[in-house]
């Protein structure tokens, strides 16, 4: 853990990702970075419900999921839970998708395959005042 992280409280993160394998890998990687995973969802609608119920600090949101996708879910969360940070983590390194995520209210946009340190740093940065 980097020195700047040691003085901060442990972030509470909700994973919204349709792949069970990806959620498991993210959970393992982020917990090793000092991040607490408080819940998991496989689609946007469930992610919204869990965000309201669990009150995490950050939602790590995939874009393409069955049912309600991540962009729509991000917009709902940003509109109803304005203090909650949504970080989009997707396979799409696409300027249009990035712009849609930004317009929906995402705090950050990351492309899958980045190192766990990059994801953890984005989570810790989102929580800085």
Short description:
This protein is α/β, with parallel strands linked by helices and 129 residues long. Helix content is 47%, strand content 19%.
Mind explaining what this structure looks like?
The structure is a single chain. Strand 1 (12-16), helix 2 (20-32) and strand 2 (36-41) form a beta-alpha-beta unit. It is globular and about 30 Å long. The chain has one domain: Response regulator (Rossmann fold, 3-Layer(aba) Sandwich), CATH 3.40.50.2300. It contains six helices and five strands, in the order H-E-H-E-H-E-H-E-H-E-H. It has a five-stranded parallel beta sheet with strand order 2-1-3-4-5, sandwiched between helices. It is α/β, with parallel strands linked by helices and 129 residues long. The model is unreliable at 1-6 (pLDDT under 50). 47% of the residues lie in helices and 19% in strands. The chain starts with a helix and ends with a helix. Helix 3 (44-54) packs parallel to helix 4. The relative contact order is 0.18.
């Amino acid at each position: 853990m980097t020195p700047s992280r040691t003085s901060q409280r442990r972030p509470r993160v909700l994973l919204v990702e349709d792949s069970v394998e990806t959620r498991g890998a993210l959970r393992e990687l982020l917990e090793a970075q000092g991040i607490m995973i408080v819940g998991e969802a496989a689609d946007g609608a469930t992610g919204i419900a869990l965000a309201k119920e669990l009150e995490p600090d950050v939602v790590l949101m995939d874009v393409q999921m069955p049912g309600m996708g991540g962009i729509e879910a991000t917009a709902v969360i940003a509109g109803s839970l304005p203090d909650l940070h949504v970080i989009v983590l997707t396979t799409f390194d696409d300027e249009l998708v990035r712009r849609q995520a930004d317009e929906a209210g995402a705090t950050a946009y990351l492309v899958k395959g980045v190192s766990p340190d990059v994801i953890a740093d984005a989570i810790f940065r989102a929580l800085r005042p």
